[in-house]
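debug: dumping io for the single-chain case to check the tokenizer round-trip. Nothing else runs in this session.
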Amino acid sequence: MDNLYYSPKEKMVFWIAGYVDFSITHRNVPSVQIYAERFQKRFGAKEVKTKIIKSAGYKGKRLYFASMDRQPVGAFNIGERRDMDNWLSQ
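debug: decoded output
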């Protein structure tokens, strides 16, 4: 899984699943649910949250995140000094 990160400060794994065009967001609702379920199964998370973060232009980053005590295999550790929001704003 590409674009997978772990924040030890928050004990959270997060995945940037790609970008979404705001002009057609209403058509993407079923895929948001499918990706959330896939993310939940892969990591055994109790709850998965999602949000879209506005980025340059008309697109936004699709983000899924969940609490997790340990860093998953393949996730990039962003370090103790940063949190997810700080990492995504760079």
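debug: round-trip ok. DSSP finds two helices and five strands in the chain.
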